[in-house]
Amino acid sequence: MNILGIETSCDETAVAVVTGDKHILSNVVSSQIEDHKPFGGVVPEIAARAHLVHIETILHTALQEARMSLDTIDAVAVTGGPGLIGGVIVGVMLAKGLAMAKNIPFIPVNHLEAHALTVRLTDEVPFPYLLLLASGGHCQFLLVEDVGTYTYLGGTLDDAIGECLDKTARLLGHGYPGGPIIEKLAQHGNAQAFALPLPLKGHPGCSFSFSGLKTAARKLILESKDPTCAGFQADFCASLQRTIEKILVDRCGNAITRALAINPKIQHLVLARERNSRR
Description:
By secondary structure, this protein is α/β, with parallel strands linked by helices. The protein contains eight helices and nine strands. The two termini are 33 Å apart.
């Protein structure tokens, strides 16, 4: 079986061909980072239009790299949500059209479920396992016991990690995406230079909260005498990364305890993130 996969849920247009025995024949991705940089983040309307412009070329390239044609495709899978609705519609309409034209199955895929199961495709991690999904728009723990069998343990009450990184990078005078910029600056900084809050650290449960951290970061940056100073930026970014690390370690400890109480057979903690390098 050869499955054509289409992804247009956010700021990347992607098409892949995967076989029934989990072999990836092609995986072509077109990033929109340059389109969104002037705005400091993803603009839904721009994202949708970019998908329309590039999707046909990406489709043909993926088929060529896989040495396939639409006549040799047995099913079409596509991200059906959650995501930016304009982009999701582009992918779904294309997938429906192809499936109808070739009289093959149309398979809508939940975006977050795909993140939960990708490790089964890439590393063959056995069920059950605990998943930490950390991305620009999502941050949550899931107990994954089988395809279609998930237990939500907790997630962000406000902002996700990617949102915190992007907004902080902008306050420091940098562009989008913020994650890689902060990571690069942090390499030369002192992670103990600034004391930032650890929202929910030590509290029971598996919830996250990053809005308070984002607000505290903003306050420190605005109060700095020279936020553009290389030394300040290096130390601040290192401190921010270290703070996020502490939060994740604390929350993972709670999630592991809770997941094992539900299913003691768990042996793996899986971290899933979106491909986009800003996370």
